[in-house]
Amino acid sequence: MSTKIDRPQTVLISGAAGGLGSAVARRFAADGARVALSDINAAQVAELANELGGIALPADGTDRGAVREVVEDAASAFGGLEAVIGVQGAQVKSTTNPSSNDGWDKSLAVNLNGQFYFAAEAIPHLLKSQGSIVLVSSSAGILSGPPGALGYTAAKHGVVGLARWLAREYGPRGIRTNCITPGWIRTPLGDGGMEYIAERDGITLDEAYERTTALVPMRRAAHPGEIASVCAFLVSSDASMVNGHVLVADGGAAVVDSSTAFFN
Ligand SMILES: NC(=O)c1ccc[n+]([C@@H]2O[C@H](COP(=O)([O-])OP(=O)(O)OC[C@H]3O[C@@H](n4cnc5c(N)ncnc54)[C@H](O)[C@@H]3O)[C@@H](O)[C@H]2O)c1
């Protein structure tokens, strides 16, 4: 098993320009790792890489060929790869209405296919390093997401299945794979969900966060760093026997009355 890596020194992060991805990048860089940062937002990922002394590998994470190049570039720059953190994601409107088919396709492409591509392309390198994968799902990966999030909900459930399958398949060969299901996090994506509620109910963004987390036992959304620290734990040797786990980091929402805690 992958107990020999105390803390990975070479880490590839997808969706690294975003609210959570950048917090994950900062956390690993602060822990002394060399970070490879991938995102479709080339300018932002370049700025962050510059700040952290990492490498920027901009790419559309829904394109398997592009992801393959990112993984190969990261592995050759670092002489290997010890951890992959799949963070990329987007909420795209999707319902059963035929006019929203495009939203379904886009939801699955960004939130599920992209996670699969990064993990699959990294496997040969992780077999060599006996490394680890963390995939970011969502509360919508174990509960229903909010209205308009059909594709997102299906994709995030898919991420849980992807992590479990990888854990079973590659655990015997030394790669641990785990999954995180955060609740609301204060990021641009979280703010997007809140803006909808704020506009609908004529309240501020802060009030929208308060309203949507009123039934959550912790009574608040997460700060991105609180989820980044879970990623750091899962890929470290402190989690050497944790494989195929779905770690719920939602302030206790999932133990309340299912999805009403978040999506009322
Ligand atoms: N914010 C929340 O409340 C929340 C809750 C649960 C789960 N999540 C999950 O956390 C992860 C990070 O989200 P966030 O809140 O930081 O959102 P964010 O919008 O700040 O970041 C998402 C990042 O993914 C990138 N991305 C989108 N499409 C891409 C593509 N095709 N190729 C490459 N990169 C692409 C974006 O450019 C962005 O930098 C996502 O998987 C999201 O589903 C977020």
TrEMBL record:
Gene3D superfamilies: NAD(P)-binding Rossmann-like Domain
Domain of life according to the entry: Bacteria
InterPro entries, sorted: NAD(P)-bd_dom_sf (IPR036291), Sc_DH/Rdtase_CS (IPR020904), SDR_fam (IPR002347)
Family: Belongs to the short-chain dehydrogenases/reductases (SDR) family.
Keywords from the UniProt entry: Oxidoreductase
Protein name, as recorded: 3-oxoacyl-ACP reductase
Alphabetical list of Pfam families matching this protein: adh_short_C2
CDD domains the UniProt entry points to: SDR_c
MF GO annotations: oxidoreductase activity, acting on the CH-OH group of donors, NAD or NADP as acceptor
